[in-house]
Write a structure and sequence with these properties.
Radius of gyration: 21 Å
Order of helices and strands: HHHHHHHHEEHH
Strand content: under 5%
Number of domains: 1
Number of strands: 2
Structural class: mainly alpha
Strand order of the largest sheet: 1-2
Distance between the termini: 28 Å
């Protein structure tokens, strides 16, 4: 399979994945009747985790769908930006699932609630700008570096820093540096000189990052499904099964 065929296959699989995700119906989630100053209950902890899972799923599928729209219309640099965002969300899903389910397993519902407060409402910008904003409790979410370091566990068969290396590579295209610039530059040698010309990046260079965008769908769906299942919610089971048909053999090993 040549590069053009590989890119076509990849884009087709991303389209199928978007359809699977968009078919998931998000439920209404009334907050349990637990007072703000009362100890957190299991039900409240579950509610906060379900709010997170559906929020992240909605964001991920919209960005993944947007990635296709940008690719189809030839807006190549924006595709690279989306791919990094998708990888971040997959890492975040894995990180949140790991620690939230750990708190639940220990029946530590207060810690689970506090953890999810940072996940769902955390904002470094708001905390630094306002410090306090009663009655809202301002908290920070987990730093992306911490999230990516935890995500390394998902790739443990490939080494200790695979997630960090992938994220670093994707980030290079999102900063004003050589990785981003060279997508627009052509070097032409004329006699003793080198002439630089500029052109619109071709869609085929997306083969550098689209594999990571599509792969990110796997840990995201698996992590959110596991998180929802511990809350007694099996809504994502069908989507996971359909996605595994797209992925093919070996998907079960990554769950």
């Amino acid at each position: 399979m040549n590069e053009a065929e590989e890119l076509a296959r990849l884009v087709s699989e991303i389209r199928e994945t978007v359809k699977i995700m968009l078919a998931v119906q998000s439920p209404e989630l009334p907050r349990p009747k637990v007072a703000q100053d009362a100890p957190a209950t299991e039900e409240l902890a579950h509610w906060s985790m379900r709010v997170y899972a559906y929020s992240l799923l909605c964001q991920f599928r919209e960005v993944l769908d947007s990635t296709l729209l940008l690719f189809d219309s030839g807006h190549v640099p924006a595709v690279f930006l989306c791919c990094r965002s998708l990888f971040e969300m997959a890492a975040h899903a894995y990180y949140t699932k790991k620690w939230a389910t750990d708190h639940l397993a220990k029946k530590n519902y207060d810690e689970a609630w506090k953890f999810m407060l940072g996940i769902n409402q955390g904002s470094r910008y708001m905390k630094e700008k306002y410090e306090k904003l009663p009655p809202i409790e301002l908290v920070e979410g987990p730093h992306i570096g911490k999230v990516i370091n935890t995500f390394n566990e998902y790739f443990k068969e490939h080494g200790d820093n695979e997630a960090r290396e992938k994220y670093s590579f994707l980030s290079e295209f999102c900063h004003p540096n050589s990785f981003a610039f060279t997508n627009h530059i052509d070097f032409t040698e004329k006699k003793d000189d080198v002439v630089v010309t500029f052109a619109k990046p071709l869609p085929n260079i997306c083969i550098q990052v689209l594999p990571d965008a599509w792969f990110s769908s796997m840990p995201l769906l698996f992590s959110l499904n596991e998180l929802l299942e511990v809350c007694g919610d099996k809504t994502l089971n069908g989507a996971v099964q359909e996605f595994m048909k797209v992925v093919g053999p070996g998907a079960e090993d990554k769950k």
